């Protein structure tokens, strides 16, 4: 490996090219444009590229596999190409460099980290000796939606892998993630009966009043001491102020740190019923990301990464996150380490940024993980 293999300006230029191709989840044409660029980067490498056609309004997924080590469980790298930033965000948040900070939509979550993993793979390919394990890099197009069309791919390759490395951004000054809450989503549909609110209110059955009862029930399930959050984030109902509301609706987000909590809460929420005669309550939903609980295999993978980081001259600490990622799908059955992307701040905002000083050490860490995992 040449001494300038991790030259910061070169890596930052690669990240810039990816950032300039805006790729909101809801624009599969834009995601596919970025996928074209990513796939082209593998043409001169000893790797195969499989393109999985997008469906249900999502973009394509890319699966790249090293030409070596594919017969046995190896390393799976997980990245996503989609961002939450709508088209035109590049005008409001243009790519720019200001001291140690580089700005741009999706630069921190997670184009910076995805590019680091790609660059580290290029350096592995440039070495005289191949590492012991094969490397598969899966780039998905729908992570910001909860990975509805890529989950099967993630789980299939995750079960075949020995290790999973996830290039979501680092947290709180460079911490990797060794645990995440599980995520459940629910839809609440309420049907009552309409009536004139002034002349015959007694004929009505208010869906909005019943929704208020349901919200109180859900809010009472919050338990911050156990790390459980239940949030009613969207409500809709009614047609006019002088009409007793016939219909009401709510969307609910639930976060749980363990499967035991999920097993307790999910049936309870699905079992909510109406308190009012003539009003029906229907709840649908499920746990769509299982909790990422630190296993002994995951702890050993983190310990190995921590040792490598120390050899590279920095301390690698870990953290637990309330947010979900694709690591939630692999951690229950495969040693997984998340948060291996760039350090920075402002994910999903108009000041999203990476810290340029984090580029070289974190790229080198990924390179050393590829090189040393057995």
Automatic annotation (TrEMBL):
Alphabetic keyword roster: Hydrolase, Metal-binding, Zinc
Keyword Transcription regulation tagged: no
UniProt keyword annotation of Membrane present: no
Active-site residue list: 82, 143 (proton acceptor)
Domain Peptidase M20 dimerisation: 178-269
Cofactor(s) in the UniProt record: Zn(2+)
InterPro entries from the UniProt entry: ArgE/DapE_CS, Bact_exopeptidase_dim_dom, Pept_M20_glutamate_carboxypep, Peptidase_M20, Peptidase_M20_dimer, Peptidase_M20A
Source species, domain of life: Bacteria
Recorded GO MF terms: hydrolase activity; metal ion binding
Protein name: M20 family peptidase
Taxonomic lineage: Bacteria, Pseudomonadati, Pseudomonadota, Alphaproteobacteria, Hyphomicrobiales
